[in-house]
Structure formats: structure tokens, C-alpha cells
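[step 3/7] fold_predict: job queued, chain A
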Amino acid sequence: MMNWSDFGFSRVSALLPKIKLGQPLANADILIDLFVRHSSLGSKVIVTPELALTGYTCEDLFYSETLLQESELALQKILTASKASMSLWVVGAPLRLMDGRVLNGAWVFHEGKVLGVVPKTFLPNMGEFYERRWFVSGRKVHEKIDHATLGSFWVSPHQIFASGAVRVGIEICQDLWGPINPSTHLALKGANLILNLSASNELVGKAAYRRKLVQVQSDKLHCAYVYVSAGNYESSKDTVFSAHTIVAELGEKLAEIDPFFIGDDHLTLDLDFERILNSRSKDVCFLEAVDELEASKVITHSFSFTKPALGELIRKVEAYPFLAEIPDFEDVIQIQANGLLRRVQSANVKSLIIGISGGLDSTLALYIALRARALSGKAPFKVIGVTMPGPGTSERTLQLSRTLLQEADVDQMIEVSINDAVIQHLKDLGKHQGDRSVVYENTQARERTQLLFDFANEHHGMVVGTGDLSELALGWCTFNADHMAHYAVNSGIPKTVVKGLVSYWAEIAASRILRSTLEHVLALPISPELLPPGEGGEIAQETESLIGSYDLHDFFLYQFLNYGFSKEKIHALARVAFQGDQDLLSQLDKAIDIFFKRFFSQQFKRTTLPPGPKVHQVSLSPRSDFRLPDELSSR
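[step 4/7] structure written:
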């Protein structure tokens, strides 16, 4: 059975206990039941909301000897129960020091030992909050406590609890909202999982802000962030609590319990610490901040987890990750069109030359050229579409190309048959007319590229490249043919996004004919059309039947470029992402072998890649994002 722990995943649970306000002994039983249950289900780190042992809204009961003494007894019960678990249990509860100061703390238990107590640093004392009435800030508290029944432990905000790849830092509610967060210093000292025990009340618009705050913090600190908040078991005398709970990782919200949701008493998720480490390693700004941070009082507690067999991954794996990170297709179009426009203005050209095949990539490149022309203002340039039917061109794609150019408002249409040129080219090479080798295929591709550059000379223009990021990853282009252009507008986006953008154009198309044409383009099988059509005129060369679905290849590409995952881990994640699609799963083994073999062997094509705009977080440009020796053949 697969164990997701082997791929860097660790399970974390945020508890939403239905506690009894002001009854810590009863609450201890409730919490222990939840801790034991989630420990047995493989959670390594389990955390409660702020002051969950007593309730956050006890107000002047925090002066009560009864409450504080019962809280201490309740902590002893939890300590005893934790002996049977190797998971880290984190409990929100008060701590009264011998000098009378009371701290709002996060108690950390492991195997019958208190590893430490992290006090709240920023105590809100405005609006509806009066925490300084009962508690003192833990900002300057940094001392070791010898407790008669709870043992010896540190009380300090400067603590990290580490086991293997998991390094836990803790802050409490308002600590996140302050201008300088404890989690920032903890992350720069190695914490990669930040827990926030919170009792954040609900106000209009606050949930959205809270969500953004957690996501941004997890992004800039390159960490996982678990935010768990008190719920409606608290007093609603003057304010209401909603149990809003959020888990984010590297800026991505992985899961959430919406405010006032009635149902689960926990949010459990598998977090990817290999992904987090990879992200930190690539961010020089984060690494330089680590270097510049002065030595602090951070105490690191090392302890051992069990390595539970996580046979099922509790985490959504996005099947189309490139598409998932696009909030609006207009964002992509603006990047492409403005990049192209800047090139036109810089080169002072009078036209854009685009080879139109009837396929997805050239269709999108045409649309981007038209958008760039619309942005150009008072001195527009021409958009010239060129169709070049050859031996491999089907009548269907030829007609689609013609209709597309007629309906898309190009400035000029040019059609040139390359049949005679290909015949002569093969004759010059000493090839017989029945030759169907790669030479035959590439002859057509290079003939078309030669014509496009010649037309660019004639019309004082620029050749717009059509190839996309997925084709570059696989080297699925002819070197110095469709591989080459003056500016490659699609080189920063993968095939799945190309499909999405062409679909978007179809939705907003000005005419019914154009919309229908674009829908037909989308329905065509992806093909370079370099082999003659079948007897019935059908396309004979379908790319995805040869190399596997681009849906899979884009998934592989995203995981490898963004996080450097191993082939084995990407394969495992793909099985989760596409678990409902048996057709794609049946292709998976073969497709991933093809991807990694071609990805490394085809680097020489990317080394000589023409310029083009970066759109996603990653690209394959040898001048910016991706550098690799050409001589690698496989890994």
C-alpha cells in the first residue's frame, strides 16, 4: 500500500470542540476524546482554538481561583492522556506564573510531557476586546518553569517544535494581525508549519479579510498555516464567534470551514512539507532574510513522531493546476497582447505575420495579435494571416483556417500551397515520393517557416510564433521551423490554458459564424498534420494518441517545474487528481515515461527559444526561469 508520508506529507487536524464555557475539567474530556481519535487516524499535529480549555469569553472568571485551579487539573488530565500518543497536541489554555501574571497560552504536549507553552504576544484592547484586563503580553516572557505536577518546560514565544521535516511554530489570534508577527521570526528560524489558535469574532467582511491574511502569510513565509477559531459555544453577549477555520499552504487555500458552518468538529488535511522546502529553496529573498535575521532566543524542541501509513491522501489535488490559478482569462490575454505590442513598437514593424493552421495554437496567436492591434491606438499595424496547405493538410482544417481569417477581421489573407515546394525539396534530397519519414514531415514545417519569414520581410513585419509551453516541454516542434519566430506569444502558457482561451474567444465572439468556427477548432484532434489525410479525408496524425493526453502532460509539467517533485510522487498525485477519469488513468504509466524522456532530451530546442511573455509562475525560457544542460538524456 502506498504511504503518502514517504512523499513528504504529514497530517494535521484543527479541532472545533463543542466545549462548555468555564468548565475546564469537562472540556478536558471532550478534547482528549478528539485528540485520541485524530491521533489514531494519523494526524501528527492536532490543535484547538484559543483558550479552548476554558472558553475565550470567561471574562472576569479569569480572576477566579476555581477556574485557574480547575484549568491546571484539566491540563494534568490531558498530559496523562498524551502518554499513549506520539502526536503533538496543542491546547489553548491560560497559565498563571508564580508572580501572578496570567498568560493566554498554547500548551504543547507530546508523549506525556509538556514541551513548552507559547504565550500570546499581542493582546487586543480596543473595540470589543479587553484582553489586557486579564492577561499580560508574552512578548518579553522567556523563562523555564518547574511545575510540581506538569513538569519543567519553557514559556516563551520563541519556540519551535521539530520532528523530521515538520517544524511547528505557534502564534495566537491577534499575533497574526499585528504589524510584526511572531510567525515571521519563527519561519525565518525554520518553522514551516504555523499554528494559530484563535478566537476571532465575526463582523461584516471580516471573514474575507481573515482568509486573505492567512493566505498571504503562508505565501510570504513559504509555509503551511493552520488557523482555527472559536465557535458558537462562546458567549454571544456582545459579539459572535463563527469557528471560521482555514488551512493554507504557500498562499493557496487548501481547505476551509466557513463561518457558522454546522457539521464537522475538525478540519483534517495532509500538508506537503517537501513542496514547502522546495519553495523556500528557490526564493533568494526569503533566504537572504534568514541570513540577516539576528540571533534570537529561539528554542528548538526535537521530538519523534510515528510515521503513520497514510494510505489515503486527505487533500484535493487539482487536475488542471495551470487553469486553477487563473482568476480571469483577461489577465492572460493582457499579458500576451501587451508583450506583443511592446515588441511591435520597439521593432517599429508595420505588420504581424501569423501562420494559420486551423489548430488551437495558431488560433490563439491570431486572437492575441488582434487584441494587440486594438491596443495600439492611433497607429495600428496590420495583422496578416497566412495559410499554407501542404501534403498533410486536411480539407477540414483548411476550410476552418479560411473561415477563421474571413471572420476574425484580419487586414490581409494570404494562401500559398507548399505542395510543389515540398516535392522539389524531397527531390533535391534524393527522397522518393512515397517517403513518409521525419524528413518528409519536417520538410513541410521548415518550408512554412521560411515563407513566414519571407512574408515578414516583404511586409516589414514580425513573425508571431504559435507554439505553446506544453509543446516546448515535450520538444513537440520542428527545430528551426515552428520552433522559431520573432516573438512567441504562446510560449508561456500550456495546452490546457490554450484550450481555455480559445473557448473564451468563442464565448465572446462577435458573430455566430466565428463562434461556430472556434467551436469546430476546439473539437478537432490536436495534430501537426504532417502526414497525408486518410482515405476519407480524416486527420491521420493525432498527437495525443502518440504521446498521451496534454491534460496529463500539463499536470506533470506543473508539478515538476513548480516543486521539483520526483517522477514517483507526480505519478502518485496524478492518480489522485484524475481518479474519476479511467481513460486518462489508463494512459498514465506510458505518458509519464514519455514526458520525462522527452523533457530532458529536448532541452536543446528550449536553449534556442525565441522571446515570449512569461504568464504563469514558471516558464521554460533559458534566459529567465529554466536552465538545463542540453546533454541530459533522461533522469
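[step 5/7] annotate
The CA atoms of residues 32 and 78 lie 6 Å apart.
The longest helix spans residues 438-458.
exit 0
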